[in-house]
Amino acid sequence: MEYSLKVREIQITGDKFRFVVDGEFAYISSLSKPKVILHFFNGAEDRRLPLVIKEFELDEDANLASFHSDYEYLLDHLFWKSGKSGNDIQMYFNVLYGEYYEEKIPLKIHPRIFEQDRLVYVCSIENNSLKFTHQPDWAHQLDHFLKVHSGWRLKKLCKKIYYVLSFFLALFLLPWFVFDALLASLGIVEYTGKDQETAVGFRQKFCVHVNARLFYLSHHTISLANARRTVDKWMNDWKVRRLVRAFRRYKKEQPVDPRRISFISVRRTELSGNFAFVYDKMKTDDRLDIQMYLNTKDLSRMTGAEIHRFAFLCATSRVIVLDEFTPHVHYLPIGDDTKVVQLWHACGAFKTFGFTRMGKPKGSPQRTRNHRSYDYVTVSTKNVRICHSEGFGIPTANVVPTGIPRSDVFFDGEYRARTRKRLYEQYPMLQGKKVILFAPTFRGHVKEDAYYPMEKFRIDSFMKAVGEEYALIVKHHPFVTEKHPIPEKYKDRVLDLSCETELNDLLFLTDLIITDYSSLVFEASLLDIPMMFYTFDLKKYIQERDFYFDFETFVPGHFFYTQKRLEQAILEKNFAREKVDAFKRRFFDDFDGHSTDRVVALLYEAMKGQETGSR
């Protein structure tokens, strides 16, 4: 692989590290742009951060792809939990381009600008790599606080005072703004406001005009939605402080119970998924004190009793087991006497998440502790350890390839037969049919704005095209609350099971999967189910979210931009089955049905306080 990476600028102000890089690669037309990772090492742990690429250009005549990166990182948060951030930190490049991967490449450093204020970090160039030396001297810290931190606080305080005064001035002038809006409604003056074009009717135009005047003066608007968001934020902040106080009190009053292991989930209210498999293996051990906290409420809506139980379990448990991003845990200063284990729900590594999304729309901010509290994360294969290390912002050694507990059912013949029998009895319309499972992921950034553009997959057209031999199961992501419209004449062959039934169980009936960017593809590969990818918004999805591997060469099936081409491929039975086996062997290390046993062994080692490295 031919490439060139050159560091152009290095600027360090306090703990902020601005890094400017230019690069060139030999262009491969079948692949998208390369990925470059900054790889930090402090002598004990490593840490990966993506190089945020701002500009990318292709020169097809010269067969070259060039990029420019300019981004500001926070050095203080590289090694969040270890307490080893005072050690020297060395930095290298890693390069990923298709199947090519190279790690710890020394940097070619010839910066036009090399500046540092020497207050918190001092940077030097040694053996063509960057070396950061943390300055623990109290004089430097005090100097940094006075010159940088205090100045920032003063600016923030002045900004708050300004907004408060301007808001009260705007409220004082509110009658005039209302009068102004009445004049606009009579045509005496013009309506104003950027949303006037979409405003319908007198009431909306009136409100948009008044809010435009308010915002111009105070940077605030009046609306029920804004009021609810403000109240929710205040409530959440208050509950966070209450949670931390309760945690500190329990931590002070009660020692960690070496027998206690707590399963905490904000994803489910009943025991299921990975938790159920692991619990069934451990529940008969009388030496353990196993506790459950299954609660899907946001912190702002938790009761006092729920907050105190959560704080108590986190303060006194030897091991905390999670199955999803759990912000409540990351608010707490959990010490080394408690181990946090993340049984991440997805197999493999598909869509980018966490810190890999830096620079993307609504990408992860670096200032939070989110995900960095994990002592261990379980994954399906050693081949995705670096992806989870980067996404979660944790050392690679903390990512352990045990396999995913809930995948064990795919190797259990009795469970498969029992599940097929139960589902056929529950949905007799599926018997004698070839079953297509349509299971796309959601669009949007978070649960609150999640949706799927239903008009992009027209069930009437699809069922007419594929014919009577097929039945269709629709299974939308749990975040999508809207129902997919099903025409009356196809209700004998189409089921919407989005709110029912475990997704993995449906795979035992499935002959063909249609998805887009769902991690369902990993579980499906274990059953050798052919897959098709309906990706009408692929380019936009890559820009906003992106993938850990090149999508076009990565997915185990053909992908289609239009429904018509998708339907035609089904009629031609063009399923690309040959891609599934190679995909399966890339993203799973073991095919023995004993992933749960390996996870349980990891938890027992965590209970003893032993360190677990990679396999």
> Tally of extended strands?
23
Shape: globular
The amount of helix comes to 25-40%
Structural class by sheet pairing and helices: alpha/beta
* Major sheet attributes: 6 strands, antiparallel
Q: What is the rounded Rg?
A: 27 Å
Q: Strand content of the residues, in percent?
A: 15-25%
How would you state the average pLDDT, rounded? 86
Q: How far from one another are the termini?
A: 29 Å
Outline the structure in words.
- This protein has 615 residues and is of the alpha/beta class.
- It contains 17 helices and 23 strands.
- The strands form 4 sheets. Strands 3, 4, 7, 8, 10 and 11 form a 6-stranded antiparallel beta sheet that branches.
- A hairpin with a 2-residue loop joins β10 and β11.
- α1 (138-172) crosses α3 (201-218) and α5 packs across α17 (595-608).
- The two termini are 29 Å apart.
Write the layout of secondary structure elements.
Blueprint: E1 3-13, E2 16-26, E3 35-41, E4 46-50, E5 53-59, E6 64-74, E7 89-97, E8 100-105, E9 108-116, E10 121-126, E11 129-134, H1 138-172, H2 174-185, H3 201-218, H4 224-253, E12 257-265, H5 273-282, E13 289-294, H6 304-316, E14 317-322, H7 327-330, E15 339-342, E16 376-378, H8 385-392, E17 399-400, H9 413-426, E18 434-438, H10 459-466, E19 470-474, E20 494-496, H11 503-506, E21 512-515, H12 520-526, E22 531-534, H13 538-544, H14 551-554, E23 559-560, H15 563-571, H16 578-587, H17 595-608
Parallel strand pairs: 1-9, 12-13, 12-14, 14-15, 15-16, 16-17, 18-19, 18-21, 19-20, 21-22, 22-23
Antiparallel strand pairs: 1-2, 2-6, 3-4, 3-7, 5-6, 7-8, 7-11, 10-11
Helix pairs in contact: 1-3, 2-3, 4-6, 5-17
